[in-house]
Amino acid sequence: MAKILNCCGGFVKTILAVSLLLIVLAGCSPVRGQLSAWQGARLGELIAQVGPPSAVSSDDAGTKYYHWYEDRGGVYTYGGQVNLKCERTFGVDAQEIITSWGWSGNCLALPDSPWQRNSPGAE
After folding, report:
1. Strand order, beta sheet including 55-58
2. Does 18 score more than 90 pLDDT?
């Protein structure tokens, strides 16, 4: 194992370090923190803060899913253009309490974002 880690001028060590960093960052995503703060909140509080959803769907069990789509267009980086698109979804029970959440895409979690829950427990 030591031979593998010392070969290639530290390239393997760098790859391992970057991989570990990405795993750690994925576990403590700012988006995850923002969305998880809404767990247990009332749907009305969320809509009052972020605006109406883009779409609503439901499953056979009666859970409603509220979807917010965001498309910020292209941003230029060192690697070229990146399109910033995101979907945030909240599952809501019959009492309009948020019971689940999720996201896909490359959501941004800015500190002043409307997705940052400011007053937990209040509506």
Report:
1. 55-58, 64-77, 80-92, 98-105
2. no
